[in-house]
TrEMBL record, chain B:
UniProt KW keywords: Dioxygenase, Oxidoreductase
The keyword Chaperone appears for this protein: no
Listed name of the protein: 3-phenylpropionate/cinnamic acid dioxygenase small subunit
One family name in Pfam for this protein: SnoaL_4
Oxidoreductase is among the record's keywords: yes
Domain SnoaL-like, first and last residues per copy: 6-133
Annotated organism of origin: Kutzneria viridogrisea
Molecular function per GO: dioxygenase activity
Length: 145, 139
């Protein structure tokens, strides 16, 4: 596990850019726009989490997993909202960043009360893509699992 | 007192994000290093204030060991910052923090809602907490 201690923080401008990137990315998945969401990852991106032994490698598999998650929520009649915050952004190289963030998911059933569904910490490697960024690696730790 | 630039506001937000991550990860030394050598941590949940880095780091180490034993993860979500600049470039930061707790096999819940009042001073290129007062809403 990388320590939070050593750090090369980025400029306020890049920090803001990355925050906007995540807001958009979270909104895309919560809206079920899987095709647009997956484009925020590089072609051969890897997503892993502590709850699943097998990481998802490449957009094709990532898309399949995302569809499954989106469909599951639909079938259960619930909406998910990803809230991402407490973001730190460190420079890895001229075109790559290491980020860490907290994210919780609020789940609301039709006519129901919102509830915390999950609390997580995420670690990403972002790489430059045009004037923006894409995720190359993501590791998510689900609290409590 | 005067307000601060957008850039400084961002920098301070970034500072807190890192500091909360260090706290929740139980990185006691790194956490204590974000306070001045003679930094003070006062809380209405504690009988008396922690004074100095050694005491502050020991308190975090102890608290984190307890949580680990209880198989509980806590996440400090800090936001709603107001930042005012005092004399000598001292910053007065007022913020809210929600503490989200998750026990093993459980779902997250809000353990505490708090008010955090900090005095920050600059040391070289980085900011340090000189005085922190945390007030839990339930006490």
């Amino acid at each position: 596990m990388t320590s939070t201690t050593t750090s090369t923080p980025v400029s306020a401008e890049v920090y803001e850019q990355v925050r906007c990137f995540y807001s958009r990315q979270m909104q895309l998945i919560d809206s079920g726009r899987v095709r647009d969401w997956v484009e925020t990852f590089v072609e051969d991106a890897v997503i892993a989490n502590n709850a699943n032994p097998e990481p998802a490698r490449g957009r094709e598999i990532i898309t399949r997993v995302a569809h499954r998650i989106v469909n599951e929520a639909r079938e259960n009649g619930v909406l998910h909202r990803h809230w991402l915050g407490m973001l730190t952004v460190d420079r890895l190289g001229p075109d790559s960043l290491a980020t860490r963030f907290y994210a919780f998911v609020v789940e609301t059933a039709k006519g129901g009360q919102p509830e915390f569904y999950r609390s997580t910490i995420g670690r990403d490697v972002l790489v430059r893509h045009g004037s923006g960024w894409q995720v190359r690696e993501r590791y998510v730790t689900h609290d409590g699992s | 007192m005067s307000t601060v630039s957008t850039e400084l506001y961002q920098e301070i937000q970034h500072f807190y994000a890192r500091q909360m991550q260090q706290l929740d990860a139980g990185e006691a030394e790194a956490w204590a290093a974000t306070f001045t050598e003679d930094g003070v941590f006062e809380a209405n949940a504690h009988p008396e204030p922690s004074m100095g880095r050694a005491v502050i780091s020991a308190a975090v180490r102890q608290a984190h060991a307890k949580l680990t034993e209880a198989q509980e993860v806590r996440r400090h979500w800090l936001g709603m910052l107001t930042i005012d600049r005092g004399e000598d470039d001292t910053l007065f930061v007022r913020s809210y923090a929600l503490i989200v707790a998750t026990k093993k096999g459980g779902t997250p819940s809000i353990a505490f809602s708090t008010l955090c009042e900090d005095t920050l001073v600059q040391d070289g290129g980085s900011w340090l907490v000189k005085y922190r007062k945390v007030t839990r809403d339930d006490l």
